[in-house]
Amino acid sequence: MPIDEVVLNQARTLILNAGMADFIAVGIAPAFESGDLLVEIALIDPVVRDVSVPNFDKPDPNRPGIVRSASILSAIRDGLPLPPVTLFQRAGEARYELRDGFHRFHLCAALGYSHVAAVVTDWKPGEY
Fold first, then answer.
1. CB–CB of 45/96 below 8 Å?
2. Which of 43, 61, 62 is nearest to 105 (CA)?
3. CA Rg value for the chain
4. Three-state SS across 45-101?
5. In 10, 17, 41, 61, which residue has its Cα 20 to 30 A from 94's Cα atom?
6. CB-side exposure of 113: number of CA atoms within 13 Å?
7. How many whole angstroms separate alpha carbon 102 and alpha carbon 86?
8. How far apart, in whole angstroms, are the C-alpha atoms of residue 17 and residue 126?
9. Which range is least confidently modeled, 30-44, 51-65, 91-105?
10. Are the C-beta atoms of residues 118 and 32 closer than 8 Å to each other?
11. DSSP code of 2?
12. How far, in whole angstroms, is CA 127 from its chain's centroid?
């Protein structure tokens, strides 16, 4: 499933608002650390949020006053490492489902990165 263009355009707007219109994605992942698994963004199926949930910058009760997209873009601009996204890989398939890292995934895709650092799990929510 390709990335939803509406969500990607929202991410691009955040990038423009952060003053990063001229940012050039260098390399295959922002602040990639040795030991991180690199996964091609085109192989990741992002979650589709319910229409009642904002795609970006919903309030985070655990981090009041922090604007998640702005802090991620600032880290990328400054070359700081980001936590890897968490992916689920279905048995026997080459594609992945995004489990954690909605903001990081979409902002990296909108910036033009081809790969993202990831942790792959075989556990899917709802499975016990």
1. yes
2. 43
3. 14
4. ECCCCCCCCCCCCCCCCCCCCCCHHHHHHHHHHHCCCCCCEEEEECCCCCCEEEEEC
5. 10
6. 21
7. 10
8. 37
9. 51-65
10. no
11. P
12. 24
Comparing CA positions, the residue from 28, 7, 18, 26 lying closest to residue 117 is 28
Cβ-Cβ contacts under 8 Å for 9 (sequence gap 6 or more): none
The structure tokens listed for 29 are 């992942």
Rounded distance between C-alpha atoms, residue 43 and residue 96, angstroms:
6
Q: Are 94 and 125 in contact (CB under 8 A)?
A: no
Cα Dmax for the chain = 46
What's the pLDDT tens digit per position in 57-81?
Answer: 876 777 787 788 998 999 999 988 8
The amino acid occupying position 34 is S
The three-state secondary structure class of 30 is: coil
Kindly report the number of other CB atoms within 10 A of residue 127's CB atom: 7
Q: Count the residues in the chain.
A: 128
Query: What is the rounded distance in angstroms from the CA atom of residue 44 to the CA atom of residue 81?
Result: 20
